[in-house]
Amino acid sequence: MKNRFGSVRENGFLYVFEHFVDFFKWPLVAILGAALICTPNFGFMTPANTRIVIMIILYAMLGMGLNVLIGYTGQVSLGHAGFYGIGAYVCALAMTKLGWPFWPSLLAAGLFAALVGLLLGLPTLRLSGTYLSIVTLGFCEIVQMILKQWESVTNGNYGIRNIPKPYLFGLKLDMKNGGLFYLALALCILTGLACLAIRNSKSGRAFMAIRDDELAATMMGIRTSRYKILAFVISAFITGIGGGIYCVIANSYIEPTSFVFNTSILILSVVIVGGLGTVRGMVFGSALLWLFPQVFRFLNEWRFVIYGVLLVLMMQFRPQGALGWQSTLPFRMSRAARKRLKERGLDAFIPGQGREA
Amino acid sequence: MQTLLGAIINGLALGMAYALIAVGYSMVFGVLRLINFSHGSVYAFGAYMVYFFVSLKVGLFPAILIAIVLSGLLALTIVKLALEPLRKKKSIPIATLITTIGMSFIIQNVLSIDYIFGSEKHGFPSLNLFAPIVIGNITIQSSQIIMLVVAVVLLLVLTYVVQKTKIGLAMRAIQQNSRAANMVGVNVNFVISFTFFIGGACAAIAGALIAGYYGIISPTMGSTIGLKAFAAAVVGGIGMLHGAVVGGLVVGVAECLAAQYLGSNVRDPMAFVILILILIIKPTGFFGKKGITKV
Question: Which of A48, A85, A215, B176 could form a disulfide bond with A259, CB atoms 3.0-4.6 angstroms apart?
């Protein structure tokens, strides 16, 4: 097949695929969007399946949050369940105890998690690599302890019950009318777009410079500790929002044991299996890890063994993740950057000029 | 006063057992710069093997011996099957980390399959082999004494191995610079395998001791204790044998005191509270040396 997308034999499957997707970008987005909008009306969307689909969307979002930290900045966190739990509890408490509506509660959840992220990010000034991972691991355990121990506020081991459903312009969002599905979907898409924007921003390039070589980044004048803390704060904010969503979809009931080390590992697995540093990978990784136990239900307890085998094999043969690949598309400058170059009369430096001609 | 002393003695005994697990983390971190998340499940596996062979009526001590060897072999399998190929490919550190988590998942879930051991808890033969010692108002269980003595003896043996033998020298050389060690003729793969074997064996002994003390085992018993022992290793200064011992004791005593005076919910996270405090004050732990990054 020789055409405008290149040939599979000469350029490789990935090249053709990427160019094909790039060329039909808008039709594909339209088809996917239509499919997603119709999803709650599909026949297979029983209440149980709806919940799984929402969890996939939620974990894709959590994955994107962690990805900012691991995929972009290269700082491994083993304690994101801590931020997730903080988000869920802040949102639930604001709604039940303070009687706030859902939206300000959700924002509060994100902001509070971000604040904690800032405080946790400060030790990164002194710690690096493995030690940072260890601190985040300890952080998750301590959040767990506070949730269990501070009974007057968090209700201890019993958790928080009767969390109200969110309203949007007077319309109640729940499982039946698919409102919660759209809520999670909209926030996940927003997060994805935000992550792509971060990636292409000055901060995003600083993050990736730190990931690739921290010392070199310092030498280039990047304030590494400031950017590392920024990455922590962004990541915590997204994860906190994710927690806020979780508290309204989780049967109106949350408890401390939902935010343990294993939850952190699940979020981490989403990032790793999907593809480190990509946004598409988070969606895929989340879908894979949530559908796997459902599809292989007939294997009973063996499915968790196979899950472990899957992780190990994945790391052996595709450590960059299922959808982690180096893009073969030509580099494209942002419109603002092009404009600035044009203003200064540096047209020659604008890449891809020939492509449009 | 007597509850305080009781808690401290309890903490010292538990702390020594933690130190035995922490040594495994510490040594592996020393040679590979890797947090081995599968270590906790090797510990659980060790306890289950003791349980299994005791139920076959081979006697407690032969059962423990078999369990030690089997756990060592399990740790060896993990290295040979999963970690060595990764090292050959020079893959990113996080891939190795996830691999150990995957391995831990496999071991834990194989143990909890119904017709193997099942996910429910099992009773474990008590290690109270002789009558408790009573001093004044304080009763010391014999299992606590056994725990303390066995752990101290083993740690002394380990210190001897690391400090005085040829393979210990090789381990320390790899810790400093594995490439240079390789060049002067150290068989790096063999030493790493040996380290994992020793770590697995120690974990099995700790498994038998702690399970004998609590009298109960479950497939997930390794996850919390594994993380705590790891915290202990870091508190003491990871890569250092005596660091692991001090860290283990600090964590053991602190958590017993916390459980006594602050409530049982505080017990498990206590290790991490100490961990974070230590890391913020002295990022390399009590005895850790500051690494120098060369460009």
Answer: A85
Sorted by where each begins, the domain ranges of chain B are 2-281
Domain of residue A237, residue span? 47-322
3-state secondary structure A255-284: CHHHHCHHHHHHHHHHHHHHCCCCCHHHHH
Any domain includes A104: yes
Per-residue pLDDT of chain B (295 residues; tens, 9 = 90+): 678 888 888 888 889 889 989 998 888 888 888 888 899 999 999 999 999 998 888 888 899 999 999 999 999 999 998 888 888 888 888 888 889 989 998 998 898 887 778 888 888 887 777 777 887 777 788 888 888 888 889 989 998 998 899 999 999 898 888 889 989 989 999 999 999 999 999 999 999 999 988 888 888 888 888 888 988 988 888 877 888 889 999 999 998 898 888 877 778 888 888 888 888 788 777 877 766 555 5
Residue A342 lies in a domain: no
* Contact residues, chain B, for A215 at CB < 8 Å: 293, 295
Q: Would residue A330 count as lying in a domain? A: no
Minimum-distance CB partner of A130 among B35, B91, B105: B35
Chain A contact for B264, CB < 8 A? no
- Tokens of residue B249, six digits: 């004791």
A333 falls within a domain:
no
Q: CATH: 3.40.1000, 1.10.3470, 2.60.120, 3.30.160. Which one for B2-281?
A: 1.10.3470
Domain count along chain A = 1
The interface predicted TM-score (ipTM) is 0.84
How far is Cα of residue A315 from the mean position of the Cα atoms in its chain? 20
Q: Whole-angstrom Cα distance, residue B196 to residue B103? A: 14
CB contact under 8 A, B94 and A276: yes
